[in-house]
Amino acid sequence: MRIGLLTEGGYPYATGDQRLWCDRLVQGLAQHEFDIYALSRSARQEDHGWIPLPPQVQRVRTAPLWAPEDDGRTYGRRERRRFVGHFKELAAAVCGEGDGFADGLYGLAELAHERGGLYAALRSELAVRVIESACRAHGARRTVRAAAVPDYLAFADQLERALRPLSLDWYGEDGLGAVDLCHAASGGSAALSGLVAKRFFGVPLLVTEYGVQLRAHYLAASDGELTAPVRALLAAFQGRLAAEVYTQASVITPGNTHARRWQEKCGADRAKLRTVYPGMEADRFAAVGEAVGEGADSGDPYTLVWVGRIDPAKDLIALLHAFAEVRKKEPLARLRLFGAPVREPEAATYLAHCKALAAQLFPDEAADAHAVGTNPVSFEEIGGPEAPEVADAYASGGVVVLSSVVEGFPISLVEAMFCGRATVSTDVGAVVEVIGGTGLVVPPRNPRALADACLALLRDPERRERLGAAARARALELFTVEQNLTAFRGIYLELISHSPVQREAVNEDGEPLPFAHPAEAYVPGHWAGGGAPSKGRTPRWADGPGLVAAAAGTAGEASA
Amino acid sequence: MSTPRITEAGQGAPARPGKPPALRRGPADPVKALMHHHRELCERAVDPLEIAAGLEAHGVTDRTAARFRHRDVFSLAEELYARVPRGAESGPGPARTGARVDESRSGQAGRAGRALLTLLPGAVCALAVVGLEATDGAARLVAGAAGAVGTVVALALCLRRGPLRAAGRTVPALRLWTLWLLAYAAYGEGMLEQIAGGGPQGPLPLTAAPLVALALAVAPAAWCARLFSVHARRKLDGSRGLEEFASGARPLLLGVALLFVCALTALLALAGLVLPHKALTPAVALGALLFLARLLIVHGFAAAAAAGLAAACAAEVAAPVLLLAGRLPRCGFLASPIEAAVGSWGAGSLPAIACGAAALGLLTHATAALSRASAHTVQTVRGADTADEPRQHQQPHRQQHP
User: Fold this and answer.
1) Chain A neighbours among B 144-203 (CB < 8 Å)?
2) For the domain A2-67+170-272, what is the CATH code?
């Protein structure tokens, strides 16, 4: 199968968000061919180059979203009228409550595909006028009505960049038209290409979001310097786009429940949502994790371990206070904090602050009058002599603590689970979802509860071991790379068999081949029964049993 | 020993029953406190989802929302969005698009340096003309060449930065048209007179005064262009609608053009005191034409500017060609209008008419084109490492992998 992998600001560039899991996906599903269509986010990202690509990557096409672009084409009168018609629909839907967003979007996509020139058109006075009249139209929202000329211009600028995927030359018979499945690695601009491919060629679309694009947009826009009307317009645009992406996608795979909730909020159909947890490499932790089961080494029983990136959101202060409580009851306890090397000045300040607090709370201690003392709290770096690998950091303690007040998907918690360590974590982000019942969870910003939970585990080695084993079993079941790959492999096959792209069969000279597909290939209906991912392609009357025979024949055809 | 309840199954710990709350009692309306805590977020938010995203970034979860008697963060955010009083939206927002781009880049010193730089072409050109007058023979040739090169370099420096900068917006033909127009200003009058008198014979006389005045006029041109862009952006920031902006921008453009013509006329008059020459009008028309063309290029209408300049060039080429064509048998009628014009108004009238008509055409176009709000935007590169100059970027490149 030929998979079109659509990314924005990540894979295959060496810097970016989604590169790790995309890389694992492409490496792991070697039986498929991958065409990568990447949008880059900055000049620096392009300068850093690509990561090495495996042979199953057939081609890579990239386009910048950050640089000014123009194809030098301008519109004649007829095209201008067409542009205004579509853009009016789009703008009206963004400014008010209209539902012409999809029509406008696809109209513009068709225009850009046939004539080009969308760059200039979206920046032209014509577009600005359309935006102005849409903002002032009856039914426009209140925030949008306050817009003035600079807001129109700023919005036109932002919109041109957001709609840039429409103008790319990716939508040819040899481009996205030739793939069997579009897999968008995020919503937003990346998925926009998938929408166009679906519209033009009927290529099914799969959207994976580990962080919801709309939410990321809100967070990014709130510290920008855009005015309120522009932010309102952009937010409305992104919201409509997300809704359209979720409507058109055959399957949406959120990375956790949090993303899933956002997607549902944005209008995703529950039937299409399938949570696929991100995969992590379990091999690195195998040695430590398997040792626990054999009872050989479950870490120093009096040591608490914290591993993570030094950041105020991790609330190390609360952890130190909690540890002070623990020390009162268990004088032998030690706390080891392993952080990644600190680069940002803000994190460095926070680290210094934490170190000062630790020195204040816990004086150095020695065994007797002649020994050199040590501090019960130590700040260490991963890669240092004590912990050359992350696994060593987890192995050094009996209990792993997570004290964050804000957390997305807690990677360090999953790593601790792989290591078979009992954990105490705060109830934030996806923690509860990840840990299930295999660790202790306390409310955030509650050092006393954290201390009590730690004490309970420190004093009960049996419970520690039980929880650790359960955590490792759970992690191996849910969070391995293999699980992730299996899920995607299944989804790929299912999508391709449910909604194959129907192409004219041609021979070497480009002449059409009659009877290349069996007649059954054109019978619409659900082949495999159940599920409804081919919505929009199958008439309602065809929903029914008895088409299984056709399924066998054409699934084979599709995979040929 | 008092231990808060710890749950293994991952439920948040609610307040324990039976014990009186040890801490201070909260207010009757807990959402109010939350609203106060996130006041800035709530006031800035343009819809409930933005508040929800912000709250989540501060660690608010569905379980926290349950404390406020809400099903999830979304409904809590909706309540916050509905309850936060939003001030009048007309208040001045954060920094507008306006003149920020220009002003952030140039300090006071930079601006002074740039102003001095715009005087450079005039100075170099004047020196060159003085050198030409003072020398003769081979030295004169060297002085002329050096002066020409120096002026071109100084001019290029001026056009590379400041309000006359038009990176990536010019078309190559523009340079050719401009050079031809300038060459005609220097030699055209003499050539036309020689041809009209039966020539050409001997070397063409150089009319240096228009060149010096035009080189000097780079300074007022830069200043006028800056005036126009700054005021236009100010108008842009202040106007509510596109029509309002257009009606403000049109008189602004006409005023700036008039201002430049006045400055140029004054400079030409000054130059005329030192280097006497016959007619003022052709140089004024040419200067106005070049100024308007540059203004259009700067705002992204290079094609229109090129058309205007090309029309003027064509008219100027046509005059001597028609005169020469008139010498052919039975073609005398071709030359008669030119001869009449040269005879009654002088050789300078033809370039004046050509450039003046072209300048008027460009002015008409500019009043329409530059009164559009979209002509006053700046498209820049995104990303952390934004360069000073917009980075030229090739079309999406593609690479095939084996």
Assistant:
1) none
2) 3.40.50.2000
pTM (2 decimals)? Answer: 0.81
ω into A533 cis (within 30 of 0): no
Q: Cis (ω within 30 of 0) for the bond into A447?
A: no
Measure in Å the smallest separation between the Cα of B242 and chain A Cα atoms: 6
B212: exposed, middle or buried (C-beta count within 10 Å: 0-12, 13-18, 19+)? buried
Nearest CB to A44; choose among B63, B377, B384: B384
- Could you tell me the residue ranges of all domains in chain A? 2-67+170-272, 77-159, 283-478, 517-559
- Chosen for mutation from A149, A167, A193, A448 (greatest number of chain B CBs closer than 10 Å) is A149
The count of other CB atoms within 10 Å of the CB of residue A516 is: 13
pLDDT truncated to tens, each residue of chain A (560 aa)?
889 999 988 888 888 777 888 888 998 998 899 999 999 888 888 888 888 888 889 889 988 888 877 777 888 899 999 999 999 999 999 998 878 899 999 999 999 999 888 888 998 889 999 999 999 988 888 888 888 888 999 999 889 989 999 988 888 888 888 888 999 998 888 899 999 999 998 899 999 998 888 888 888 887 777 888 899 999 999 999 999 999 999 999 998 888 999 999 998 999 999 999 988 888 888 888 777 655 556 677 889 999 988 888 888 999 999 999 999 998 889 999 998 888 888 889 999 999 999 998 888 887 778 888 888 898 988 888 878 888 888 888 889 999 998 888 888 999 999 998 999 999 888 888 899 889 999 988 899 999 999 999 999 988 998 999 999 999 999 999 999 999 999 999 998 887 777 776 777 777 777 777 766 666 665 544 444 444 455 555 555 544 444 444 444 444 43
Best probe of the A interface among B11, B49, B301, by most A CBs < 10 A, is B49
CB contact under 8 A, A452 and B395: no
Q: DSSP letter at B186?
A: I
Assign domain A283-478 to a CATH class: alpha beta
* Residue from the list A43, A428, A443 with its beta carbon closest to the beta carbon of B391: A43
Token pair listed for A53: 């690509």
Which chain B residues are within 8 Å of A260, Cβ to Cβ? Answer: none
Distance between CA atoms of A407 and A388, rounded to whole angstroms?
A: 25
The CA distance from A538 to A525, in Å, is 6
Interface ipTM: 0.84
> Do the domains spanning A2-67+170-272 and A283-478 agree at the CATH topology level?
yes
CA distance B194 to B189: 9
